[in-house]
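Thread: quick sanity check before group meeting

JM: Hey all, I'm pulling together slides for Thursday and realized we never actually wrote out the predicted structure for the chain we discussed last week. Dropping the sequence here so it's in one place. If anyone has concerns about the input, flag it before I start.
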Amino acid sequence: MAAVRVALVGCGNIAAQYARTIAAEPDLELVGGTDVVPGRAAELVARFGGTDYPTLDSLLGDDGIDTVVNLTAPKAHAEVTAQCLEAGKHVHTEKPLALRYEEARELAELAVRQDVRLSCAPATLLGEAQQTAWKLVREGALGTVRAVYADANWGRIETWHPSPQGLYGVGPLVDVGIYPIAILTAIFGPVRRVHAYCAMLEPDRVTLTGTPFSLETPDFNVALLELEAGVVVRLTATFWVRAGRQVGLELHGDDASLHLASWLEFDSQLDLSVDGKEYAPVPLVRAPYRGVHWGRALVDLAEAIAEGRPHRASADHAVHVVEVLNAVARSTRDETAVAVASGFQPPTPMEWSS
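JM (edit): ok, ran it. Output follows.
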């Protein structure tokens, strides 16, 4: 197939990682980017090639662009994605799809009306380690899985992130807790009920440049997710506790337990235990990509469009994840269990993992 022409909206912290993986893929072509901060897009295209579009409107007016990648701040995701869909572009957006379930559902419906595709991160389920874990579950290596421990302990991000205020604004559940939610719902199906708790462990922070700022969103979240399949998930997401020894995903079944050290990295360590004491490494289904292939969902989207099949990082799944995030927030606020109603068609495993 002809290379799919891709443009980036938002050229901040994560854009270079996307650009690098896009440039390395023969089926993708990076044609440029735009950013509201002067100079960011120019710096990106100077490194990776393409056009520095002065505005979003000018980018969307380029008929040569097939797919837009939305890398703006989380609070801008819904508005920017809507503009791109209305312009007739396929969209892959960074997580979350939107901050409110109603907005997320409207975006999914807009994509259908416009007859374009809407794809959403996180898509680390497409990694070799994650696909291997899913294959073991499908093949019954763990027996019936009944409980999962998921840890997104991301530490104090102001110690490395150049502009952490935006991520602190949405909080750790939305920024990193979303990864285990997306993986586990893809594997086991939708969440049906949520119980949650949150706290503000350290409300006053300082940026790398010495600028103090205060948090308005809790930096510590714990949620119990009851899945339709009967699996119970304990999820912790925090911007204070460092990874330590509690990292990744632990899947516990009747016959065995599986530990995925990282829900992010495609080459994560994967270990299996049949007695809960001794763990042995599990070989991955194929040689993994080292780290995170940020463009893999874009490759899948391009191939899905060419083949006329559903893409794996679907809009409906992303909508469900947003409803789960909103349910956690309501459960925390109201100190009660909250039901989750939406559903989605589960993705299929990667061909090389099936």
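AS: nice. The chain has two domains: 4-123+295-314, 127-290+318-353. The chain has a mean pLDDT of 97.
JM: adding both to the slides.
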